[in-house]
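Hi,

I'm pasting everything inline rather than attaching a file, because the server keeps stripping attachments. The sequence lines come first, and each chain or strand is labelled.
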Amino acid sequence: MSESEWFIGIDLGGTKIGTGLVDRQGRVHARDYRPTEAARGRDAVIVRMLDSARQVMTEAGLGLGQVAAIAIGAPGPLDIPRGILTAPPNLPGWHNVPLRQIVEDALHVPTYLENDANAAGIGEYLYGAGRGTHHMVYVTASTGIGGGLILNGKIYQGATGGAGEIGHMTVLPYGPHCGCGNRGCLEAMASGTAIAREGQDLVRRGVPTLIAELAGGKPDAVTAKTVVDAMQQGDRYATDIVTEAMRYLGIGMANLVNLFNPEMIVIGGGLTHLGEQLLDPVRRAIALRAFPMAAQRVQVALARLGDDVGIIGAAGAAMMAHT
Amino acid sequence: MSESEWFIGIDLGGTKIGTGLVDRQGRVHARDYRPTEAARGRDAVIVRMLDSARQVMTEAGLGLGQVAAIAIGAPGPLDIPRGILTAPPNLPGWHNVPLRQIVEDALHVPTYLENDANAAGIGEYLYGAGRGTHHMVYVTASTGIGGGLILNGKIYQGATGGAGEIGHMTVLPYGPHCGCGNRGCLEAMASGTAIAREGQDLVRRGVPTLIAELAGGKPDAVTAKTVVDAMQQGDRYATDIVTEAMRYLGIGMANLVNLFNPEMIVIGGGLTHLGEQLLDPVRRAIALRAFPMAAQRVQVALARLGDDVGIIGAAGAAMMAHT
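And the predicted assembly:
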């Protein structure tokens, strides 16, 4: 175990880079958020990321020599054992980038790479809703659906770091096409993208729904938020879309209960703004579909770390990998 | 680590009890198989089980004092941490039986309880098709569909020993009812029971299929074997039933690849007699539906331990639990 109490967590996203200097209690002592500017290309993004790391150190009045480890939470697919971003869809032009090594060479601090959903899961496990559990599944329900598996108190990565692709369980065998190439994935049924797609479809077909009004009649202007707004104003079509999406989310979560028998499922991501409209169908699906012993054991909770989850989680991943 | 090289594996099934004296290399030095006679009740079954264990010791010319540990592979649902059979459907009259303690008290050997599918998975991992892997999913495809998860070289049991219920992933949300209470489970779509149900349905509806002929026109006489026999004699209806079942098995296996990113999926159980007619659709579903990196990494293999898998697996579970 390193003597240093300091870890840097970097959350590398397609739109923003977040960096935090975090202690072993998960407290963020300095943070930096800046746009990724992915379009300027891979080398420019890496420079921005390194600048961001240096910035938090300056802000905290510390030197990089005082940092025990860095972890970068990055979008998949990754080759975690080798520290490589293989082909992240939201970082155009990145192919087989050995990011772990690049950062370690530049900053001279032991560096680790972790899937962004895994990192968020580690954050919630160590410092958020999942504290005190040993078996926890983290699910991010947002534009996409991702996951992180904490099994026996450790992140489970599988043979090549690709485990936990919860969003790509098939839940409707010949359902809608998914961005991953498969059909009927949980992500294709229950994500923000799926909700938006169903709303767009109604507008395109001229269905008299408030969704059309809110989107100015333009199908492509419909987002998940448009549909949720319409639902909250009482639109029945919008309600049906969200209800159906949450029904599938519940089916996916019940599958996880039967497979992992976890103590807790922690759900984060933008769709958690639905609150009970998300939690209630998930809990009911688990009660209806999972084995009673496992269903009774599991708690379903919303994530607690908020906007800093990415940087806290990445720092947590550094701690777990480094000890 | 115990100095003794001897372990007893007991496979407690609804129709037969198997017991083996097994060494650390997985070799069976003595074995005993006898009918469970479950109808005679719980106490009589326990006596038969204890007699069976003593029998293998006598046969080997060894005393129980030379045995390091015993494990019992038993049908779920179990409370593994507490060593209790809660309510096994094929052992009528058993409710919350503390079997682990009963056996330990009777034989004075450290005793463990394990789910039967987990035990079979441990057997294949230590001594069968999965040797040398670290992340392996064992699937038994038979009357039911069960599973055992070897993750990071250990059996993964979850919070209450209920993990790995692979057969009860929902793969068709409003599909046929399953024995577990849910609908559209993998077991309800792809097990021997599902194949038999579809065959029975055809006979009941008077469809001109060889299945009806082989079953003497009696729907209830149709088993999975009847359907497979009809298929092998060229019956198109039977072929469709098996094809559809294997398509769902493939969907389930692709889900496991996306969730666990395993090095290997080992498939055992009666349906493996289908050989390539099982393996080919499973491999194609994984290639079509799972993420390329995980799909390319995983091997799909048939189980290798044959009829002794239950006793070898239980002995392996004793070894793993006892070290």
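Chain B has a mean pLDDT of 95.

If the labels don't parse on your end, tell me and I'll reformat.
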